[in-house]
Amino acid sequence: MAYVMHPLVLEKYLDTVARFGKISTIPTPVFWHGLQIGEEIMGYRLDRIGGVFDKKRTFYFTNVKDGGKGAVNVEDPRETAAVEFSGEMCVGGEGEVGSPMPGVVIESGGNRLFKEGESMLVIEAMKMTVSVKCPADGKYENVLGVGEKVVENALVARAIKQ
Q1: Does the global pTM surpass 0.85?
Q2: Domain extents in the chain
Q3: pLDDT of the residue at 23
Q4: How is 69-118 classified by DSSP, letter by letter?
Q5: Cα–Cα–Cα angle for 8, 14, 15, nearest 5°?
Q6: Which option is the CATH number for 2-75: 2.10.260, 3.30.300, 3.10.600, 2.60.40?
Q7: Helix, strand, coil percentages, rounded to 5, for the chain
Q8: Residue among 74, 60, 48 nearest 151 (CA)
Q9: How far apart are CA 55 and CA 151, in angstroms?
C-alpha cells in the first residue's frame, strides 16, 4: 500500500536501509542533533570532528568491538561562509564564531553584549592560550563552558538576534 501511495518515498527508504541498516534504531536526539564527541551508536564511538574543507567535514570514529579506526567525509552545507577574527580564519554560518584550534576552554565571557575585538573566551592547548575575539559588535552566547573540550573550527559562540 505504501508503494502505491508514495513510491519514491518507499524506494528511498529501502535504499537507505540497504546502505545503512535499520535506521529505526537511531535515538531521536542523535537523529536530530547528531552525535557528541565520545558518544557511541551502533557499535561506533565518535572520537573527533575535523574542520571543513571544500564544504565537507570529516568525522573520526572508532569501532568499539575491535578498536578499528575510520573516518567519514560529510558535506556540510551550513559551513559555506568564513568568519574572520583575530587574524585567523574560521569556518561558520552567519553569526557563528568557531574555535581557531583544538583545546580546552579556560575562560568564558558568558552571554552578553560584546564589542568588536573583545575576548569572548579563552582556549588552552599544550600550555598555549588563544583568545577568541568577537567579530562584530552585538550580543553573543558562548555555547561552551569552562572545562569543555573543543576541536578546531567547532562552534564556540553565536550571535543572538535581537
Answers
A1: no
A2: 2-75, 82-159
A3: 67
A4: EEEEEEE-TTTTSEEEETTEEEE-STTEEE-SSSEEEEEE--SEEE-TT-
A5: 90
A6: 3.10.600
A7: 15, 45, 40
A8: 48
A9: 17
Q: Which residues lie across from 41 on neighbouring strands?
A: 44
Q: What backbone torsions phi and psi does residue 19 show, to the nearest 5 degrees?
A: -80, -40
At the second CATH level, the architecture of 82-159 is: Beta Barrel (2.40)
Q: How far apart are CA 101 and CA 13, in angstroms?
A: 39
The answer to whether the CB of 122 falls within 8 A of the CB of 105 is yes
What pLDDT is recorded for position 123? 92
The C-alpha cell that represents 20 in the structure block: 545503512
Tell me what pLDDT residue 81 has.
42
Residue type, 7: P
Report the run of H or E that residue 4 belongs to, with start and end: helix 2-5
Which residues, at least 6 apart from 12, have a Cβ–Cβ distance to it below 8 Å? Answer: none
Q: Which residue, among 73, 121, 130, 70, has the nearest Cα to 101 in the 3D structure?
A: 130
Q: What is the pLDDT of residues 109-119, one digit of tens each?
A: 888 888 988 99
